[in-house]
Amino acid sequence: MSTKAPLAPAPYLRLRSVLRRIIPVGIRHSRVLSGLRKRIGRPRSMFNLVAVPCVLCGSKSFSPITPNRTAPVVRCGYCGFLYVNRQPSESDVRSYYELETQEGYTRNIRQWQREQNARMEKVWIEDMECLSPWLPPQAKTKGFRFLDAGCATGFQLVSATERGWDAWGIELSEPIALELRTTSGLQVINGTIEDGLRALGADNFSLVLMSHVLEHMPKPRSAVEAAYRLLKPGGLIAIYVPNGEGLQARHDFEGWEWSGFPDHLWFFSSMALRRLLVECGFQVEGMWTCVGHSDAGKLYDLVKEQLHLDNYEQAGAVAEVLGPMGLLSDLRIVARKPIKPMDQTGG
Ligand SMILES: [Zn+2]
Question: How large is the average pLDDT for residues 244-263?
Fold first, then answer.
């Protein structure tokens, strides 16, 4: 989603959401808000940004690669990991996803649901189909325990429920979680993945999906640890994130579709993602890059222009080679929670 438009800070978003409820339809809320803004002054910053250490190695040394941003993207001075520093607090992130903004998450999700967006639907189907080589035989039976952590539109929950799976979702946006529960009858916990662990309990799921979620989370290590605990021993996790070392990120980081703030806080390379999962106790079973959730048109334009190709068919052929080279923009990993924890195998 685009984050180019200036975002209002949480207090204004809250105020707008209150105004929408109390002011009759037909009166321009934006006019009321701009009047209020003139009276109480413009906010200095949209978020309370705080300095954070590298989530991979804990180092506090870094160098900015996008110095002109309010919240620059930096490269860790010790391990080379790319991340946003300074970052919004957890409560600011929660407000951002909970309340409707002009360009925001909740609004986009509702729009996708209304339009039954064909492109997204194809992407969501592929999100599950690519996991079939790893799914156990029990996935063909009823009651297979599936968790979509960051379930957004609930598409995967609907589709998993239709397969007969016992499907649960966790969703940070309260209005979306409520809507999925009440209008679609889906099993959705509102909150963070850690809240989901408290509500649902450990050793509970056979498959956890986190599709384009981890890079949005202020505490990705804690989220992966929570996912580990939610899984049964032998259970699978599938994590999809924008590829921080893909061709498009390397070519023009600022212009790359997944570099937007405050949505994306961490830019995983394959090594960084593998390291995080292994450190949280997982055994990695597969890792690859694909077009996935990214815009194929933008990729084809770049390849065509850079290699001076005549047409998009040639660009498509090149894109097929970029996948195995680890250069496409959607980075995916499948890993297993060992039957016995790895640190207890030595005795
Ligand atoms: Zn580091």
Answer: 86
Q: Is the peptide bond before 86 cis (omega within 30 degrees of 0)?
A: yes
Give tens-digit pLDDT for 40-69: 444 445 678 889 999 999 999 999 988 888
Question: What's the CA-to-centroid distance between 81 and ligand 1, angstroms?
Answer: 5
* Domain topology for 9-37+88-336: Rossmann fold (3.40.50)
86, pLDDT greater than 70:
yes
Domain locations along the chain: 9-37+88-336
Name which of 284, 172, 287 is nearest 223 in CA terms.
172
- Residues 83 and 215 sit within 8 Å (Cβ to Cβ): no
- End-to-end C-alpha distance for the chain, whole angstroms: 49
pTM of the model: 0.82
Query: Which residues are in the CB-under-5-Å shell of ion ligand 1?
Result: 54, 56-57, 59, 76, 78-79, 81
pLDDT (mean) for 329-342: 92
How many angstroms separate the alpha carbon of residue 55 from the centre of ligand 1? 7
State in Å: Cα 62 to ligand 1 middle.
8
Q: Which of 277, 274, 276, 296 is nearest to 287 (CA)?
A: 274
Ligand 1 centroid to residue 83 C-alpha, Å: 9
Tell me phi and psi for residue 95, to 5 degrees. Answer: -60, -40
Q: How far is the CA of 75 from the centre of ligand 1 (A)?
A: 8
Q: Is 87 helix (H, G, I), strand (E, B) or coil?
A: strand
Determine the distance separating the centroid of ligand 1 and the alpha carbon of 205, expressed in angstroms.
Answer: 31
CA of 210 to the centre of ligand 1 (A): 23
Distance between CA atoms of residues 249 and 242, nearest Å: 9
